[in-house]
């Protein structure tokens, strides 16, 4: 992958991570960041053991009826637990609120990214929510569910003006993972050019990592 473009869009998938650039898309089992100049990724960056992140709240408001697709970021205190009940208890102790099974199932990937990010490299990694990207691509209009044929067809048409998206995803990823990775790539390119939209209030976590979502 060393010859891939320096800006990539990454999304989690069943076999690990799907990584899209302007010239190809691959699946990798473990997350790698250092070989790219800029990474857009659909995973929380910056975690708090307290109230919900402002960027998550703003992204949900932007998406309106589709806002439920923005899962609340888990508190960092819960990441050490591989058992749902233990993670739930840790989250409640840290924040006063629990976490859903959906959020719990994402935690291994959240932890994988959290271990790689630090205040010195955070400038080359931006958090992207694909549904926010697709809404901007669709001129502010909402889209059908990405799990439907109509939703996937519309997303492909929106991306076709930007990229040559393969007809099928690589082994280990689903069609919606493929489309999301390219939407993340599109937002990362906008971020690099300084023409992106950003959600968040400048809030940083206890490690000094800014919590924001771009599209």
Produce the secondary structure layout.
Layout: E1 7-13, E2 16-20, E3 25-28, E4 38-41, H1 54-63, H2 84-95, H3 101-116, E5 125-127, H4 130-137, H5 149-160, H6 175-193, E6 198-199, E7 213-214
Parallel strand pairs: 1-4, 4-5
Antiparallel strand pairs: 1-2, 2-3, 6-7
Helix pairs in contact: 4-6, 5-6
Characterization of the model:
The protein is α/β, with parallel strands linked by helices. The chain contains six helices and seven strands, in the order ββββαααβαααββ. A hairpin with a 4-residue loop joins β2 and β3. α4 crosses α6 (175-193) and α5 runs parallel beside α6 (175-193). The chain is globular. The model has no long low-confidence stretch (mean pLDDT 94).
Strand order of the largest sheet: 3-2-1-4-5
Give the helix proportion (percent range): 25-40%
Order of helices and strands: EEEEHHHEHHHEE
Number of strands: 7
Which shape, going by the Cα principal axes? globular
Notable features of this structure?
215 residues, two-stranded antiparallel sheet
Condensed summary:
With 215 residues, the chain is of the alpha/beta class. 36% of the residues lie in helices and 13% in strands.
